[in-house]
UniProtKB/TrEMBL annotation:
Domain Response regulatory, residue spans: 2-117
InterPro entries the UniProt entry points to: CheY-like_superfamily, OmpR/PhoB-type_DNA-bd, Sig_transdc_resp-reg_receiver, WalR-like, WH-like_DNA-bd_sf
Keywords, ordered alphabetically: DNA-binding, Phosphoprotein, Transcription, Transcription regulation
All residue ranges annotated as the OmpR/PhoB-type domain in the record: 130-225
4-aspartylphosphate modified-residue sites: 53
Protein name, entry field: Sensory transduction protein RegX3
Annotation: DNA-binding region: 130-225
């Protein structure tokens, strides 16, 4: 995987690049926001993930994240010393896919990189990801964002589709409520819990499969793949 590391500290960048290279990443180092934006031309330039430090010399990392998100859907992981909740929420609202606070464990950072790349690979068929997810009589067309049951198209809202696609990528795996809110709504759990419950109920009703999405009390939800 090609990875764009946006970090103005050359010593930090060199050390992290060495670690990432040992784990199979091809790292390009950008020292400023403008350099990062240029590296992503055209159309993301083939990068799989962007690691974005917020303390850049020419412009704020939040501003850079917003510009990246307007140009491409490449996953962005913010890497920063800003640990307060408000900063994390702001970053996620701007379109960041994850937020890692310094100092961090290298193993955790690697796990987060792999996690965001798995979640987004389906968005571009050219990456080799699946074009459709088949779950018994349910078919989820990822490129066209269309869902059908027994061949009949079911009209879903954007968030309903995003929620279903997220759960369907890993049937049987429990997704925490906080994780779903972060990935689908790009915000924090606070005040959004009721919205998630409403969307789950709506999906069950529209698909006419009350048992498709199982509530795991106190934790979150998982998709139970129906029989074909």
């Amino acid at each position: 995987m090609r990875l764009l590391l946006v970090e103005d500290d050359n010593h930090v960048a060199a050390a992290l690049s060495a670690v990432l290279a040992r784990h199979g990443f091809h790292v390009t180092h950008a020292r400023s926001g403008e350099e990062a934006l240029q590296a992503l031309v055209p159309e993301g330039a083939g990068f799989g993930v962007v690691l974005l430090d917020l303390g850049l010399p020419d412009q704020d990392g939040y501003e850079v994240c917003g510009k990246i998100r307007k140009r491409t859907s490449i996953p962005v992981i913010m890497v920063t010393a800003r640990s307060d909740v408000r900063s994390r929420i702001h970053g996620l609202n701007l379109g960041a896919d994850d937020y890692v606070v310094k100092p961090y464990d290298t193993g955790e950072l690697l796990a987060r990189i792999h996690a965001v790349s798995r979640r987004t690979v389906h968005e571009d068929p050219a990456t080799g990801g699946e074009d459709a997810l088949l779950l018994g009589s349910v078919r989820i067309e990822l490129p066209t964002r269309q869902v059908s049951v027994d061949g009949t198209v079911v009209q879903l809202t954007r968030k309903e589709f995003d929620l279903l696609a997220l759960l369907a990528q890993r049937p049987g795996v429990v997704f925490r409520r906080e994780q779903i809110i972060s990935e689908v709504w790009r915000t924090s759990w606070e005040g959004t819990g009721r919205t998630l419950e409403v969307h789950v109920a709506s999906l069950r009703a529209k698909l006419r499969m009350p048992a498709l999405i199982e509530t795991v009390r106190g934790v979150g939800y998982r998709l139970v793949a129906p029989a074909a």
